[in-house]
Write a structure and sequence with these properties.
By secondary structure, the protein is an alpha/beta fold. The protein contains 11 helices and 12 strands.
Length: 334
Amino acid sequence: MARQGVASMFAMALLLGVFASVLQSVESIGVCYGMSGNNLPSPSTVVGLYKSNGIGAMRLYAPDQGALQAVSGTGISVVVGAPNDVLSNIASSQAAAASWVRNNIQAYPSVSFRYVSVGNEVAGGAAQNLAPAMENMHAALAAAGLGHIKVTTSVSQAILGVFSPPSAAEFTGEAQGFMGPVLKFLARTGSPLMANIYPYFPYVYNPSAMDINYALFTASGTVVQDGAYGYQNLFDTTVDAFYVAMGNHGGAGVPLVVSESGWPSGGGTAASPANARIYNQNLINHVGRGTPRHPGAIETFLFSMFNENQKDSGVEQNWGLFYPNMQRVYPISF
């Protein structure tokens, strides 16, 4: 009887461990809610689609009133963007930051805000506004009693001048100029850096130079050996490259959140529903485990919820998990 009890306890512990692992994986995945379409469902319908599919996190690129009203009280975790066009104003004015927080965060007390992302893929001279804008946004949230909402920014993978092998990773010269202050802010405030990571683009830049399986998570073995670390997919290579580059510029210990990743289902090279399904399903299954250098769940947002017909023609219109009529582009399980 005692032996049976121990066996039962072991089986239950094993089951709970599996369940916790599944939960961790599910909680690691959100989906970006882009709105560059003239035929998209209403925000309340979209929020219903998130809920019916068990999607627990949403990224908004701007504080859209309809979306924020619809997601209020649902418990869905929200990343909201302060768009690039407000960056300079927030950077130069604490009052502007306080006004933005009042109108777009405090006005929605039932929304489960997780991060405010100040700017998306900001480049050129405007990037010098990032750290000052983040400082002012952080101060405004703290003054409003909302210091639990972390302030970050979302960067492009293009700021990596070298990404493979990860141990040699470094930001471009331009990015080094603004990433130091950004990373010091993130380290001080306990906030993550967000990065948009797309293995699709390095692959299609020169398909003859890369096995597509390395980009799709389907390589049968190690493709890049980097000292003690073996890399089987380009996603992990890029994530760990960010960590190394961040460590070079004051960001050791700053976590990375993948704010966009996906694969197009049409409109270009290797863009098909089959490849998009393979990539995104493998991504969902993978992010709960982490990378060779950083095991553990990677908070990740798939791009995106819908195909968006007001984006540039080609692959840009074909990143959605769903058509605007809410039919799936391909089967996928969260």
